[in-house]
Design a protein that fits this description.
heterodimer; A: about 550 residues; six-stranded mixed sheet; 7 helices; about 10% helix; globular; B: about 160 residues
């Protein structure tokens, strides 16, 4: 009897252990598989997506990742795989490598890589004298934004937001960034400016994070008049929130003929501010004058902007003028996270003030004698840029695209670098097995950005402006709508197009910065471009 | 192992109660904040810093719901393999199933608010299932007082 019972107990224990292993084993394996190495190159991330090929015959389905790796990395497919496998925490060995690397198999074994071009060589003309010179010194400190409460964060030249940098279109801007005391290191990214790749300021992709006591000089030609901003792209989800940001205004050479005001929205410790100020920002504008308010949304979520007291025109989006924008009344404009919207108001002749609401009762008050403009509630209607303004030529034919990409955002449970949770996916794959969109200079590129992840995502492509072709299959009929930051709502999809005219390795990510830290990051890579920088490593590069 | 199983099951029930309290706490705090002139938009929602203190309820709800409760439910299932309580595996399996359903409804509720209502209803089912699982040994003690070794097979 005792023996039977013991046998039964033993059998039960064996079954229980087997069941426990069956439940926990796969989870442990998935967790281990998701761990990222201490340092890895973004070129080794995910799989190459050629968007239907290259213009060179025989390259379709081939692997420009090879050429991108350059002679220093690998000279053939085998070498490439060998070099890439460690960068994936053993993904290849664990079977995940089929996703990460398996798509390279179509590459001919004797494929000779094109000579690599290092991102650090992609600069503005080094011989050209700078027209605008600025030094920005970053500090970790407690500070008080304009008339606000104390904030424990970061400043540039002692303030946050940092100083507004002014330039005129065509000028060469040179900014020297000095890190006095930000322990994690810093960079500056010029959001919306199509800078040469070396000046893009992405830690671990185009440069190393600038450590305490170090400096880095950014040089770029501000070729496009408009409203831009700059922010750290090292641990950006934390450093931007805590103050490493500022506005960049590029005026057209002939001027705008309008009163000009910047309205940079940022929340410090949850407190909504415009230009660091908690209350209204006043801008003097005399009766009959035109006043341009440059709204910059530095936050992680979109915000509505509306005007009380006068009609307005939305004259520019993301640093690009709209064509023939009509007057708007009783309608709000949504400003994408990371995006900009320039509103122009014709001041009433009777001298009454005008209130530009930025997400709430406060904002910018335009006036001359009085600034007591009453607050008005947010209009129910929202301006649809798909049909606002008048069409104009965009300069290329998006129907003759050389590359067609899909950037489809979803969400699923899994492990991200060992952390369990519900994480974002790109085309069904979780970070780091995301696509590397590969293009060649001069390509016309189409991209379909879809979102069924349950949340809205402000998608930001570095180094390029893309034009919106359609949303949900409905074609754009208004002014060409050029974006660098596009809010893709849940359940929506957009077709956008751009010309690949700025070689480099460019992030294409969600500008809800915590989302980027949760893996909603992919890259656009030009054939033949390489980066010597790695994520992680001694400089502690963490772009998200 | 029996004690661990019971503790985990009761812990799930307690967590469901915490979840209900946290989300209403946050909702009430938000109502009060808006009443006092606060404005909520996506920019505020996505800001890491809390615009009103009760927002901590939403963070607790999210962390608990996506991380803590699923892990506890998984551990409950594993512990059920090792207990001799009749029906423990089935009960723990039911709890885990309802947790998966609950997380799914919570996520999909952002898309389709009607599913959020089911999320509230399923919380009651999950609470009941957790208590039911925790009390399996009592039920077993009442129905099969003298034949534990005959019933053990069903526990595996």
């Amino acid at each position: 009897m005792d023996a039977t019972r013991r046998r039964g107990a033993r059998a039960r224990l064996v079954v229980a252990c087997a069941a426990a292993v069956a439940v926990l084993g796969p989870l442990t394996w998935l967790r281990q598989d998701s761990l990222m190495p201490d340092a890895y190159s973004v070129m080794d991330m995910g799989y190459a997506d050629h968007g239907g090929g290259s213009r060179e015959a025989g390259q379709v389905g081939g692997s420009p990742v090879h050429s991108a790796h350059g002679p220093a990395r690998a000279t053939g497919h085998e070498a490439h795989s060998a070099a890439a496998a460690p960068g994936h925490a053993g993904h290849a060995a664990a079977g995940h490598g089929v996703t990460a690397m398996g798509r390279d198999v179509a590459a001919p074994a004797d494929h000779v890589p094109a000579p690599g071009r290092d991102v650090t060589s992609l600069t503005a003309d080094p011989r050209r004298e700078a027209d605008v010179r600025v030094t920005l010194t970053a500090r970790k400190q407690r500070f008080r934004p304009a008339a606000g409460r104390l904030v424990d964060g970061y400043t540039l030249n002692g303030t946050s937001p940092g100083p507004v940098i002014h330039a005129t279109a065509g000028q060469l801007v040179e900014v020297r960034l000095v890190n006095e005391s930000v322990p994690d290191g810093i960079t500056l990214h010029w959001h919306g400016v199509d800078v040469p790749n070396a000046a893009d300021g992405v830690a671990g992709v185009t440069q190393d994070a600038v450590g305490v006591g170090g400096s880095f000089t950014y040089r770029f030609v501000a070729d496009r008049a408009g409203t831009f901003w700059y922010h750290s792209h090292q641990m950006s989800h934390e450093q931007v929130r805590r103050g490493l940001l500022g506005a960049l205004v590029v005026a057209p050479a002939k001027g705008t003929g309008a009163v000009d005001g910047v309205a940079l929205l940022h929340l410090y410790d949850g407190v909504r501010t415009v230009n660091g100020r908690e209350g209204d920002v006043r801008v003097e504008a005399s009766p009959g004058a035109r006043a341009r308010v440059r709204v910059i949304n530095t936050e992680n979520g979109q915000t509505p902007v509306w005007v009380g007291g006068a009609p307005f025109r939305l004259v520019a989006v993301d640093g690009t003028d709209l064509n023939e924008p009509g007057p708007v009344r009783g309608t709000a404009v949504m400003v994408t996270a990371g995006g900009r919207a320039d509103l122009e108001v014709a001041m009433p002749e009777d001298g009454s003030p005008v209130r530009v609401h930025i997400g709430g009762p406060t904002g910018v008050v335009l006036g001359s004698r009085a600034y007591d403009a009453p607050a008005v509630p947010r209009p129910a209607a929202t301006l649809d840029l798909l049909s606002y303004g008048a069409p104009a030529p965009i300069g290329f034919d998006p129907d003759a695209a050389d590359r067609r990409f899909v950037y489809d955002i979803g969400r699923r449970p899994g492990f991200l670098d060992g952390r369990p949770g519900l994480w974002w996916t790109v085309n069904g794959h979780m970070f780091p097995d995301v696509p590397m969109y590969v293009v060649a200079p001069g390509d016309v590129v189409r991209m379909r950005i879809g979102n069924h992840s349950g949340e809205t995502h402000p998608m930001h492509l570095h180094g390029h402006h893309a034009v919106v072709l359609s949303r949900g299959g409905v074609r754009a009929t208004g002014s060409p709508w050029w974006v660098d930051s596009l809010e893709v709502g849940n359940g929506e999809w957009y077709d956008i197009a751009f010309v690949a005219d700025n070689p480099g390795i460019w992030m294409d990510h969600c500008h809800n910065l915590p989302h980027a830290a949760e893996g909603l990051v992919a890259h656009l890579m030009y054939e033949g471009v390489t980066t010597p920088f790695t994520i992680g490593g001694p400089p502690g590069n963490r772009p998200e | 192992m029996k004690v661990l199983y019971k503790v985990l099951a009761y812990l799930i029930a307690a967590e469901v109660a915490v979840q209900a309290m946290a989300v209403v706490f946050a909702d009430a705090g938000m109502g009060k904040w808006v009443e006092q002139g606060g404005v909520l938009d996506k920019a505020v929602m996505e800001s890491d810093a809390p615009p009103f203190p009760e927002v901590v309820g939403l963070m607790v709800h999210g962390m608990n719901g996506i991380m803590v409760i699923p892990v506890v439910a998984l551990l409950l299932l594993v512990s059920s393999f090792f207990t001799k309580i009749p029906g423990a595996v089935k009960a723990a399996g039911l709890v885990l199933l309802l947790v998966v359903l609950q997380v799914s409804l919570g996520i999909l509720g952002h898309d389709i608010p009607g599913l959020g209502a089911l999320h509230g209803l399923n919380a009651l089912l999950l609470f009941s299932a957790a208590v039911y699982a925790a009390r399996r040994d009592r039920a077993a003690a009442v129905t099969t007082p003298a034949r534990p070794d005959v019933r053990v097979g069903s526990a595996g």
